[in-house]
Amino acid sequence: MFEKIPARALSDTVAQQLLTQIDKGAFAQDGKLPTEAVLAQQFGVSRTVIREAISRLKNEGVVQPRQGSGVFIAAHGTVRPLRIDYAEAIEAGSVPQILALRRAIEAEVASEAAQRRSDADMAAIDAALARIDEAVAEGHDGVAEDVAFHRTIAVATGNPYFLKTLTFLNQYLEAGTLVTRRNEALREDFSRQVRDEHAAIVAAIRAGDASAAREAASTHLYNAARRLAEAGIC
């Protein structure tokens, strides 16, 4: 059933193969996994590796150990948590892909914010934008402030799922933003472009122009990828 893998392989390799078999419905109708000993033999690894793999799947809610009975597929075991490998996300080659993901989400976030923001939301967005300039003026990279600015716009949508998604992505956005902002800081024209693009997003939201806000946010993220390409970073 399983492909043999080297004994030195990481437990996540085993976990991934188990996930694949679970998705295929390869196990018994009662959802019970083979024993550690059987799995170790089939994978060609130690029982310790199997235990680590099972532990990973348990933490993700895919399987559920039952004392004295074995390990079973959880009732919602086919529901997968969203996972992005951090090491891959901060590689230069991955930054354009992260930016594309941001563009797809944040363009709609800006559009929704333009339609739904309150006066208090607008004040928070203005303050968040000002904090980026303050951080840069103080000699900081402005990464945290940049991420906070976009998050404040998400809050203005009133949609908790936008906010939850961006909160999850935050760690990867900071990685990508770190690369882009350091790149942009190398050239004054890049820095000016970023300030102007942020200002355009804010102006469209203030005007309640959903279409303009969507376009401004999309343009901002598109240009971020272009600036990286021009600098030869990706």
Low-confidence stretches: none
Strand content: under 5%
What is the global morphology?
Answer: elongated
Largest sheet geometry: 2 strands, antiparallel
Helix content: 55-70%
According to CATH, the fold-level topology of the largest domain is: Four Helix Bundle (Hemerythrin (Met), subunit A)
Structural class: mainly alpha
Got a strand count?
2
Write down the Rg: 23 Å
User: What's the CATH first level of the largest domain?
Assistant: Mainly Alpha
For the record, the CATH architecture of the largest domain stands as Up-down Bundle
Strand line-up in the sheet with most strands: 1-2
The CATH fourth-level homologous superfamily of the largest domain: GntR ligand-binding domain-like
Mean of pLDDT: 84
Q: Tell me the number of structural domains.
A: 2
Description:
There is one protein chain. The protein is mainly alpha-helical and 234 residues long. It has two domains: 11-73, Winged helix-like DNA-binding domain superfamily/Winged helix DNA-binding domain (Arc Repressor Mutant, subunit A, Orthogonal Bundle), CATH 1.10.10; 86-230, GntR ligand-binding domain-like (Four Helix Bundle (Hemerythrin (Met), subunit A)). The chain contains ten helices and two strands, in the order αααββααααααα. β1 (63-66) and β2 form a beta hairpin. α5 packs across α8. The protein is elongated and about 60 Å long. The model has no long low-confidence stretch (mean pLDDT 84).
